[in-house]
Design goal:
Elements (H helix, E strand, L loop, with lengths): L3 E9 L7 E10 L2 E6 L9 E4 L3 E5 L1 E7 L14 H9 L8 H17 L2 E8 L5 H14 L2 E6 L20 H11 L7 E7 L1 H4 L2 H14 L3 E5 L8 H7 L7 E5 L5 H9 L3 E4 L1 H7 L6 H6 L5 E2 L2 E2 L7 H24 L10 H7 L2 H6 L17 E5 L11 H7 L6 E6 L2 E5 L2 E2 L4 H23 L1
Parallel strand pairs: 1-4, 1-5, 6-7, 6-14, 7-8, 8-9, 9-10, 10-11, 11-12, 12-13
Antiparallel strand pairs: 1-2, 2-3, 5-15, 15-16, 16-17, 17-18
Length: about 450
């Protein structure tokens, strides 16, 4: 792997010290950041990337996305959570073939790379067969994105004589097969985690089985908490079993009591906010402000590809401005006027989309900031473009003014995946046609089944 020297950019490191180099150079060697400084003198470089007029940032981490829904973009735009669960999981999901999962994951991952996301937490809960699972993994690996593949299970309505999905733990044999045959290494570009039901969506025996499986295999386990609990004291019971900790992730969690939230935060559990979907689907206030008040990190994700834009510029902006609005409304209700100062700075939003997302995925030792020794997951934004130039505050420019059109170069693990604004992916037009055909067939079959 050749050495790459990125020269003369405005480097926003997200190193926890507020380090911004303007100008700054980065040396990439064997897939890692080998050196960083104002001006690096390096010999025998395979490629020099001129970053003058560019903002250089860590690749984004999308901490929660159902990539398998990419072929159904837009259909959930006007759905509540009840409508979504009914139409998607008890309906549309059952018409997916392995090739549909493959093309959706491939094109969804390409879209993430194109928009500057280098790490994707793929919450894959439409795996009715091993072939579906393998197709999802194949696509992620082919795309070149870094991904935490969270293996879940479908949620159809049970047929006569079948158990409800809430009574069925993750299939241990299948998880062990994936771990043994497909994703055995935690140092690979695509790694394994679990998408579990948790106390909100399963009985306690299933909770115990899934949590214990995650603990036994040393995997991140993520769950949705978006409504009433099947086991109201489930988290308390899991804590008593010693099953909570940093590898456990809770998504949404808008309805948690203060006591539950404090228990989870004190146990080291991570949280992921998907503010735009939560606002649309009636989940209540995103958890952002309550987590900040407890000093807990926030990770953010786009959630359902079938509803909203999944680029992390939009995700970060929506999450930030939603919390600013809520803080303002609270202040007005209490004092009659808005806050004296901004309650959430833009740098926090960039942290949610980078290093805090990496922490949620158990990858903060590898990605999420630009420091020597970490993987070279790097994004260059064209700051000379209309709408972004001139840059007076690079962090503000990234969070509140930049977008996918500004993503010039994307590097994952030292490999250039997007160059000069063009995604380096084979036969992308043919793949796009395959994605459209897949979505059209699934919708046609679903509508025919509805009568």
């Amino acid at each position: 792997m050749s050495r790459i020297l990125i020269k003369g950019g405005t480097v926003v490191t997200m190193d926890g010290k507020g380090t911004i180099l303007a100008p700054g150079d980065l040396l990439v060697e064997r897939g890692r950041i080998a050196a960083l400084g104002p001006r690096l003198e390096v010999e025998e470089v395979g490629e020099v990337i001129d970053a003058a007029g560019m903002i250089v940032i860590p690749g984004f981490v999308n901490a929660h996305m159902h990539t398998w829904q990419t072929g159904l973009r837009g259909i959930a735009a006007d759905w509540t959570i009840k409508e979504y669960l009914r139409a998607m999981h008890a309906g549309l999901a059952m018409h997916f073939r392995p090739e549909d999962i493959y093309i959706s994951n491939l094109m969804g991952a390409y879209a993430q790379l194109n928009a500057g996301t280098t790490t994707l937490v793929d919450w894959c809960h439409n795996n009715p067969t091993p072939e579906h699972t393998d197709a999802a993994i194949d696509a992620l690996q082919e795309s070149g994105i870094r991904a935490l593949f969270l293996h879940g299970s479908p949620k159809p309505d049970p047929k006569t004589g079948q158990k409800h999905f809430s009574e069925i733990p993750l299939p241990r044999a299948e998880v062990e097969r994936v771990r043994r045959e497909r994703l055995e290494s935690d140092d690979a570009l695509v790694t394994l985690g679990l998408a579990i039901l948790g106390p909100g969506m399963s009985v306690h025996e299933v909770c115990l089985a899934d949590f214990r499986l995650a603990r036994e295999l040393g995997l991140v386990a993520s769950m949705h908490v978006s409504g009433s609990f099947m086991v109201p004291d489930g988290f308390e019971r899991l804590a008593a079993e010693g099953l909570l900790g940093p590898r456990i992730n809770v998504v949404h969690a808008n309805i948690l009591t203060d006591e539950q939230l404090s228990l989870l935060v004190s146990s080291g559990v991570s949280f992921t906010v998907t503010a735009e979907v939560e606002m649309q689907m009636g989940f209540g206030r995103p958890l952002t402000g309550r987590l900040r008040a407890l000093g807990a990190p926030v990770s953010i994700g786009s959630d359902i590809e079938s509803a909203i834009s999944s680029d992390m510029f939009t995700v970060a902006r929506m999450t930030l401005q939603c919390q600013r609005l809520l803080d303002s409304l609270d202040a007005i209700a209490e004092t009659g006027s808005g806050p004296e100062a901004i309650t959430v700075p833009t740098v926090e939003a960039l942290r949610w989309a980078t290093i805090d997302g990496a922490r949620m995925a158990g990858m903060d030792h590898r990605v999420g900031s630009l420091v020597p020794g970490k993987a070279a997951d790097i994004v260059l934004l064209n700051a000379r473009a209309h709408g972004l130039h001139p840059v007076n505050d690079p962090i503000a420019s990234v969070v509140l003014q930049a977008g996918t059109a500004n993503v010039d170069t994307v590097i994952v693990d030292g490999v250039v995946r997007k160059r000069a604004g063009r995604l380096l992916a084979g036969d992308i037009d043919r793949r796009a046609d395959e994605l459209a055909a897949s979505g059209a067939r699934i919708l046609t079959e679903f509508r025919a089944a509805q009568g």
